[in-house]
Amino acid sequence: MTDRMRKLASDAVWQACRLLPIQKNKVVFISYGGKGFGGNPKAIALELLKQKEKLDLVWLSRNPALNLPEGIRLVPFGTPQAVKELSTARVWVDNSRGGAHFKKSQQYYMQTWHGFALKHIERAAQEQLPDSYVAQCKKDSSFIDLIVSNSDFMTRVYRNDFWYDGEIALYGSPRNDIFYEENSVFPAAVRKFFGLPQDQKLLLYAPTFRADFSVDGYALDVERTLKACESRFGGAWTALIRLHSNVAEKSAGLFPYDGKRIVDATAYGDMQELLAAVDLLITDYSSSMFDYSLQGKPCIQFATDLEAYKRDRNFYFQLDQLPFPLAQSNDELADVIEHYDDVQQQKCWEYFKRENGIVEDGNASQRCAQWILNHVKG
User: Between residues 66 and 217, which one has the greater pLDDT?
Assistant: First the structure.
């Protein structure tokens, strides 16, 4: 079947579903275009399960073997059944651009996005984005009833760059509620998952992807970095390497994985669980640094291709102005680790939070769930 035929078939399904009635108790979730069970939609779905309301919770995923909690129904993403679910939902929740063809008058769409923006996104990056994506974004934004924000800064980004003039709620990021749980299970659970001792210190290296899907920028000298961590922070260290899902297939062979000292964590299902478990994060241009730092743990930027990346997608913040030390070579990285000042870095982070109006407090999922329940019952 050609692309044109697929589009015509999809259009026909959407048109047929216009006639279907809305089911007031149905909430449909999509995360990263159907890639898995994660992000803000996951946290909201789990919170709704706790509410013990009679809801039909539907998760759209490209993975037919995805393991979901009892009470959440799996439907294959991109299928006629998925179109039917979206067309009959009272509320749908997404963290990227879903591509719905229409929204009925009694439906509600909550957009939760997927990170505190470092790189230019949407309208700010319009010249670097395909025209088809820009058109999809504009259409998607016309459907949104609420954008969930975690900061004054992101509220400005949504207002300025999302082709959107509707309601924005300063709720916090549901996915980050995990960092405020007392007696978190994830440090122990992640170590158990990878077969590591419970007293093992964990470094997470999580670079983002490049527009050309190159991995040339992933130049971390893992062994040297681990030795620097052991010298500065003490203990025995293991590196978890997690590449972006867009280049996941390139993970094998890129680093000398041995399952003990250097571990491939690219396929681990939930990034936030890893962030909650590890003792140090090293990343480049990923918004994960802003999530991770809510815990007060060490975070370092390692960017060996900064000028090239700027030419492709510039930043809202310059990297050397962020509250995280920046290294552009392995020599610099080792030096940054050896001289890491916990007290000074925490002061820098607290100042950054105040300046950008970050409001995370561990209750974002509850606020989002209540908004949904209000519209389901309304």
Answer: 66
